[in-house]
Amino acid sequence: MIKKDICSYDHGQLKNEIEAMGEKSFRSRQIYEWLHVRLADSFDEMTNLSKKLREQLSAEYEIREVTLTERQISSVDPTEKFLFRLCEGNMVESVLMRYSYGNSVCISSQAGCRMGCRFCASTLDGLMRNLTPSEMLRQIYQIQKLIGERISNVVVMGTGEPLDNYDNFLQFIRMVSDEHGLNISQRNITASTCGIVPNMRRLAEEDLQITLALSLHGSTQEKRKALMPVANKYELAEVLEACDYYFEKTGRRITFEYSLVQGVNDQPEDVRELTALLKRRNCHLNLIPVNPIKERNFVRPDSKNAHEFKNKLEKNGINVTIRRERGSDIDGACGQLRRRYTAVTEGESDEDICDD
Ligand code: SAH
């Protein structure tokens, strides 16, 4: 029998499920609290429920497995990387970054990715599958439990394209910021997209307060196309219009991400074109010196060049920062830990298949 993914139901949906079992609605509040506040991994932990109800629950529902497989702790800064195993054996990685303002977790939204960005390790093997809301939530829950400290900020910038998994991503955002769960302020959540225009526009209309980050990476349609296949589908002009629409609807300033690749998009003309694109926009530009992956020969500009690039933009009135590198000693670039692991274990075992 296919078991239902109980941790993906929001508060109202769980209430309906539990009432349909003939239970009182306060039971659903108790169960929701076990799952999303006490962060239970099994129904056995739910000791204020009768044994019979726990048995009924585990016959019908599952708490989707997100199991720690590897934990890397950086020795250069307070960053940790976690590799989690999903029920059918796919791996996803998450990163914990400790800041003065709190603990931030970067989660994955898909196992693999089908967007094909040229410099990105997460997309090299394509998309395995979408993550469910529970699997996104439980990356955060597991880290919060492991470190015994509250997570206050979330970035959806791990493996995957959140807007290619729209419904699950949206449910995740609503649940992680829900007062009945971890209650993380939407203003402390950032989601990054490569620019799936219709879903950016949909997101603008969801009445959310999360920050939207756009992976820009090229200052013209042609340059973007050379780095990001998604640009074949959506023109830069439409992507920027969708950003403006998001700002107009939510009042949230867009963050533009720009992976700096030596000799590709770090030239004086790029400064000019970027300035023209961003000058009249109320936005922030985050430069990410590219993290070279061995499968491609992209080169990271040295720190001096990256700073010069930034200074020129700043002089032109652009609000710009260089992303501080974190955890450089622990498989820094997106998807690299997962890939290393997959390469090592490939073909080793027949993993059992998920219920659905
Ligand atoms: N699919 C989302 C999230 C991806 S990861 C998106 O495209 O925005 C978050 C950011 O890291 C994106 O801007 C992505 O383009 C960038 N990125 C991926 N691999 C990188 C690498 N090797 N070096 C620098 N930035 C990288």
UniProtKB/TrEMBL annotation:
The active site is at E93 (proton acceptor), C334 (s-methylcysteine intermediate). Signal peptide: none annotated. The keyword Membrane does not apply. It is found in: Cytoplasm. Its cofactor is [4Fe-4S] cluster. Binds 1 [4Fe-4S] cluster. The cluster is coordinated with 3 cysteines and an exchangeable S-adenosyl-L-methionine. Its main location: cytoplasm. PROSITE patterns: RADICAL_SAM. S-adenosyl-L-methionine binds at G160, E161, S192, S215, L216, H217, N291. The keyword Endoplasmic reticulum does not apply. GO terms for cellular component: cytoplasm. Its EC number is 2.1.1.192. Pfam families: Radical_SAM (PF04055), RlmN_N (PF21016). It catalyses: adenosine(2503) in 23S rRNA + 2 reduced [2Fe-2S]-[ferredoxin] + 2 S-adenosyl-L-methionine = 2-methyladenosine(2503) in 23S rRNA + 5'-deoxyadenosine + L-methionine + 2 oxidized [2Fe-2S]-[ferredoxin] + S-adenosyl-L-homocysteine; adenosine(37) in tRNA + 2 reduced [2Fe-2S]-[ferredoxin] + 2 S-adenosyl-L-methionine = 2-methyladenosine(37) in tRNA + 5'-deoxyadenosine + L-methionine + 2 oxidized [2Fe-2S]-[ferredoxin] + S-adenosyl-L-homocysteine. Keywords: 4Fe-4S, Cytoplasm, Disulfide bond, Iron, Iron-sulfur, Metal-binding, Methyltransferase, rRNA processing, S-adenosyl-L-methionine, Transferase, tRNA processing. Belongs to the radical SAM superfamily. RlmN family. PANTHER family: 23S RRNA METHYLTRANSFERASE, RADICAL SAM CORE DOMAIN-CONTAINING PROTEIN. This is Probable dual-specificity RNA methyltransferase RlmN. It comes from [Clostridium] hylemonae DSM 15053.
